[in-house]
Amino acid sequence: MSARLDSAQPYVVGIFRIVVGLLFAVHGAASLFGVLGGAAGTGGAAVETGAWPGWYAAVIQLVAGGLVLLGLGTRAAALVASGSMAYAYFDVHQQAALWPIQNGGELSALFCWTFFLLVFTGSGALGLDRLLTRRTVTTPEPATEQPPEQAAEQSPEQTPMAA
Predict the structure, then answer these.
(1) Cβ(122)–Cβ(74) below 8 Å
(2) For residue 83, which of 51, 121, 111 has the smallest C-alpha distance?
């Protein structure tokens, strides 16, 4: 059973990454553009452009979430996203109370640790990271065959030993 689960792991990590990236990007889009209910606490509106920290957090959410969703630069984007959520938790939420259940910081804490996990797992399957890595890896050229007369002329130290 473990072998079967292990073989599916890259695909499950890829699907996990897609879902988390989509949720994070949508959160940023809602805050930036006022769609899907808008930013929290604005009555459905967008956050004011350039407002600290809400607007910058929304930009990070949209961009990093989109990159994680696509699996492009996943580790770096996840690190930035994790850091932004750690900042959100400690600067915004923890002032109200110690525990996330008390201060409303569950989502920030979950996103923080989720993205931190993706820093170490990478994009998994189904990501552009893997596609680009496969294309950039150069494969060695196959050895060219020598004509029989050149192979016969080789000295004993040049010919491969028979096993």
Answers:
(1) yes
(2) 111
Exposed/middle/buried for residue 161 (C-beta within 10 Å: 0-12, 13-18, 19+):
exposed
For tokens 């994790």, the residue is: 82
Tens-digit pLDDT profile for residues 21-48: 999 999 999 999 988 887 777 777 888 8
Residue matched to tokens 């294309």? 135
Three-class secondary structure assignment of the chain: CHHHHHHHHHHHHHHHHHHHHHHHHHHHHHHHHCCCCCCCCCCCCCCCCCCCCHHHHHHHHHHHHHHHHHCCCHHHHHHHHHHHHHHHHHHHHCCCCCCHHHHCCHHHHHHHHHHHHHHHHCCCCCCHHHHHHHHHCCCCCCCCCCCHHHHHHCCCCCCCCCC
Buried b (16+ CB within 10 A) or exposed e, 63-83: bbbbbbbbbbbbeebbbbbbb
d(CA 110, CA 91): 16
- pLDDT single digits (tens) 8-25: 999 999 999 999 999 999
